[in-house]
Amino acid sequence: MARVAAQLTNFTAGELSPRLDGRNDLAKYSAGCAIVENMVIYPHGAAARRPGTQYVSEVKTSANSTRIIPFEFNTEQTYIIEVGNLYMRFYRNNGQILEGNKTITAITKANPGVITSNSHGYLTGDEINIAGVVGMTELNNKRFLVVKIDGNTFSLKDIDGTVINTTNFTTYGSAGTMNRVFEIVTPYTTAQVFDLKFAQSADVMYITHPSHQTRKLSRTDHTAWTLNAVAFTKGPFLDTNISTVNFTASGTSGSVNVTASAITAVNGGVGFLATDVGRQLRIGNGYADITARTSSTVVVVTTTENFANTNASTDWSLGAFSTTTGFPACVSFFEQRLVFAGTINNPQTVYFSRSGDYENMDANIGGTVADDDAVVYTIASNQVNSIRFMSSARTLIIGTAGGEFVVSGGGDNNAVTPTNIMIKKQSNHGAANVDAISVGNATLFLQRAKRKIRELAYNFDVDGYIAPDLTILAEHITEGNIVEMAYQEEPLAIIWCVRGDGQLIALTYQREQEVVAWHRHIVGGSFGTGNAVVESVAVIPTEDSEYELYVVVKRTINSATRRYVEYLHTFDFNESNNTTFNYLDSQLSLSKSSTTLTAGISATATTVPVDSISGLSTSGKIKIGGEIIAYTGITNLNLTGCTRGSDSSTATAHLVKAVTKEVVNIITGLNHLEGQTVSILADGATHPTKVVSSNQITLDRFATDVKIGLQYTSILKTMRIDAGSQDGTSQGKTKRIYEVTARLFETVGVEVGPDLNNMERIPFRTSADPMDQGIPPFTGDKQVEFRGNYDTDGFMMVRQTQPLPLTLLSLYPRLVTNDG
Questions:
Q1: Which of the residues 208, 325, 697, 737 could staple to 690 if both were Cys, CB 3.0 to 4.6 A apart?
Q2: Which residues, listed in sequence order, are joined to residue 200 by a DSSP beta bridge?
Q3: Residue 622 host element (H or E)
């Protein structure tokens, strides 16, 4: 038997396809894994437990699919936009944007309870958040729907529409504020929100959908957003009429009738349609908007640039964007032009605005063409290929259902003009109807069948663009199809993808380091009998920090379907403080204040002098050393009405400057996890799980810093080990791994074993460590006896189930192989 010590030094190939199980000849085989679940591959080579998600808010209507999109005004003001059925809501600084405070002056104990707030301004159906109520605290920190009674009073329903009965609530005392959730109305239905495409410049975002007029989302303040239809200037227009049909205007300006001599050249021979209302029309050098249809040959128009005369003219054209022809499906900025493409009737046509004038589509028809004029260009191909995306890089990349094209000005440094525009086909893969992502010098797009992500980049060897498949080594990972993608550039360059079955998959992508590593993420919780479902993903940058990933997650909570907006916590590269660990999903955090004694106190003192009361509750409990002290009030810098040694702790004397921490054991405000079994991290140490009941849990011990959320499991499974044979390869030979050294970085709590039923927990805590306190993360080597038997596989698995960090740098197994 051969005895050998092997090494797995990195995991930069990520999760590999089961179809590569026999390809140990591949260079990436030893750096690949059979499973990478809820682990992130670092470009350095390590595999680390992904951070958990923080709960932000429930979407407006949990019964409907909801999308999120990013909005970046500047480096300091970035937003996430919740787009649902006929509305938009907005998020900033990890919270939902609310309107200003309204003051509560009374709440009745009745069914339904009635709130008084003078001149509240709310309408039935508005969603509000209530906080700061004294007395009837059952309403605090919860969301409700308004049922308006009059201008000063209203009753409440919960988010599901159930009337709020306050009869058995605590009597209202005083105070309380309300904030309405800020939202705006949109024309986009639930079925349409995932087909929206958008392009942004500063505080304006252009949004397209083939069934809706292009709209412009503008922001002037956090609670000042507008969504208006774009009124394009002078176009764009379809081809100029070449038939004998003429148009005659009844006047040259204002509201006039336009009569067609026949219907044969109008709308494919059917004449004017009711859907032409709102469409542009050109006669000679005059322009107008159609405001009404009288018949198939007569429409009413309002001029935007006067007609030259009332003579019959065959020099006319109709607008390219309308309900009749369809509206653009794609939008992008390129070389100071706003570019649209993909209408229903002209799916291969691209429309460029005038240079520097985004809403001016004047192509100077019939005049002398200037370089800054608008451009209309139809891609020629052997088949109809709808344009699916446009991506602006050194050139404008256009993805269609049948291939990929590049737009240029005919030379490396030539700007696109009406006279030099060139659109050349580069590949024939075809694109899905999902926006592409620009990463460095490459454009990553989803192929037509939604199973492959391709990397379109210029290649000097072929003097053109090539598009290799980034899923070739992990084709299984996209089973279920990709429906949305987002790129998190900082800190690890990860492309996050939503799969059709709700699983979140990700690609660590750093081409210059030859790192293309896939990993899968199953978010905590469940939906029905399966896993929680991720429905949408978006990324926004933050000031001087890493980019933030937001998700919409669908779960079954308390037997009801809930959709939550959550964000992934930042990657902590310095896991030194246990109280800052964030490894739970849909997490909420509680952190109480600390202070110090300004004078020593005896074991019987009923007043505790402290140097600061900032952040302390007006009444509560504190912990000094091992003693829990309850207090009932605060006078100046003294905690008064103290009960010493409360909650079975022992009263003792304490010295000046002793640290005083406010502690709690009842955690409220967990209504978003009602009925769920939650995992807990209390003061940096794991705590037994609890079930949320009546929006709260009771801890087994008092704590200052508490993290509560849904547990998820991180798993890494290596490929079959290929080492330890004296006679060729060890693949297929009987072997046994008897010991493994795991090289770890800032890790607490991890298991190693041959399969999930035979895991050995690596010890980190010693008998000298207090059980109610966290232990510092460990960096270094941990050696563990391996529970493997003799077999032909040689798999190793690493697992983390606790809300604690895990970064696996490498594995060093020792094994024996039978060469007989």
A1: 697
A2: 205
A3: strand 620-624
